[in-house]
Every structure is written in structure tokens, then in C-alpha cells.
């Protein structure tokens, strides 16, 4: 039987993955730490928008900011997060494209 803590942790992980930009950030950080400017470029978003997403990911406990002088680098909070993302990417899913036509607008079936 799952605990409330486990359920909340999975819900936070799901919330993080429910947004394409946050998913891109997590996928980028799988290969190693990144800096906000680089992550913004990779995700194709402004630095302000990236900052908001990083705050969300920190709040979810998925990434940490490591101060480096006047800058901060971001990395996954735990290496197991990267492995979990690898496992999710490795799944072979048969998805009916008509099932969730509005997934980007959070109106998925």
C-alpha cells in the first residue's frame, strides 16, 4: 500500500512532466549540470520563463541550484531521477493519437 508521501512525490513528478518546457529541462539535465542561459536556449524560452520553470522544479524537489560565485548551475536533485527519465523514455507505448488531442492544454482524457 502506498503512503501519502509516495503519492505526493509521484504527483509532483507528474506535475513537472506535464509541461513541455519543464520536461525539456529535466531531459537536458540528465546528461549533466546546466546553466540558466544554456537551458533557456535549449528549451527555446526566455530566461524569465525558464526561471519560473526552474523554481517549479526546485519546489518539486527534482532539481537543485548549486551556487558558483555569482552564477548558479542546476542539476538533478538525485541521479535516480535521470534513471527514472531514461526508464520512462525506454518504454514502448502504443498511443492512440486521438486519445489526448488537447494534452498541451491540460484537457487530456
Descriptive report:
By secondary structure, the protein is mainly alpha-helical. The chain has a single domain (4-91), classed as Arc Repressor Mutant, subunit A. 52% of the residues lie in helices and 11% in strands. It contains five helices and two strands, in the order H-H-H-H-E-E-H. The protein has helices at 4-17, 20-29, 36-43, 47-59, 79-90, and strands spanning 63-68, 71-76. The protein has a two-stranded antiparallel ribbon with strand order 1-2. The longest helix has 14 residues, at 4-17. The chain starts with a helix and ends in a 19-residue tail after the last helix.
Task: Describe how the helices and strands are arranged.
Elements: H1 4-17, H2 20-29, H3 36-43, H4 47-59, E1 63-68, E2 71-76, H5 79-90
Helix pairs in contact: 3-4
Key descriptive features of the protein:
109 residues; mainly alpha; Arc Repressor Mutant, subunit A; two-stranded antiparallel sheet
Into which percent range does the helicity of residues fall? Answer: 40-55%
Report how far apart the termini are. Answer: 26 Å
The count of DSSP E runs of length 2 or more, i.e. the number of strands, is 2
The value of Rg in angstroms is: 15 Å
Number of domains: 1
**Backbone structural class:** mainly alpha
CATH superfamily label? Winged helix-like DNA-binding domain superfamily/Winged helix DNA-binding domain
Q: Give the number of helices.
A: 5
Main sheet? 2 strands, antiparallel
Supply the CATH architecture: Orthogonal Bundle
- Low-confidence runs of at least 5 consecutive residues: none
The average pLDDT score comes to 88
Strand content: 5-15%
Q: How is the CATH topology named?
A: Arc Repressor Mutant, subunit A
Order of helices and strands: HHHHEEH
Strand order of the largest sheet: 1-2
- What would the principal axes of the Cα set say about the shape? globular
By CATH reckoning, the class would read Mainly Alpha
Amino acid at each position: 500500500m502506498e503512503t501519502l508521501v509516495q503519492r505526493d512525490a509521484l504527483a509532483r513528478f507528474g506535475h513537472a512532466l506535464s509541461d513541455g518546457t519543464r520536461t525539456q529541462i529535466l531531459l537536458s539535465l540528465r546528461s549533466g549540470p546546466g546553466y540558466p542561459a544554456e537551458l533557456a536556449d535549449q528549451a527555446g524560452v526566455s530566461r524569465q520563463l525558464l526561471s519560473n520553470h526552474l523554481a517549479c522544479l526546485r519546489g518539486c524537489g527534482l532539481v537543485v541550484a548549486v551556487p558558483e560565485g555569482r552564477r548558479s548551475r542546476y542539476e538533478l536533485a538525485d541521479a535516480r531521477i535521470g534513471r527514472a527519465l531514461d526508464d520512462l523514455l525506454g518504454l514502448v507505448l502504443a498511443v492512440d493519437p486521438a486519445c489526448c488531442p488537447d494534452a498541451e492544454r491540460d484537457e487530456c482524457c
